[in-house]
Amino acid sequence: YYRKCGNTNNLHPHHIIHRFKDQRDDKDNLLVLCFDCHVGDNGLHNGKWKIEELVPKELIRELKIRYGLLKK
Known about the structure:
The chain is an alpha+beta fold and 72 residues long. Helix content is 19%, strand content 14%. The protein has helices at residues 35-38, 57-66, and strands spanning 11-15, 30-34. It has a two-stranded antiparallel ribbon with strand order 1-2. The longest helix has 10 residues, at 57-66.
């Protein structure tokens, strides 16, 4: 799990690769974010930061390959 800040209150799961095709709830595909980092004024969903700032590009690539969204 990756975290944007050190806040341990009001935590939310967020998928690195969206769940549009299947469940994709494996732990490698989840971030743990506080409310503000997730959906608050400074949050990911408000465009204040991008997943790539927190998750290594290699993991994002590996997940896309695993889910059939990218070829090796």
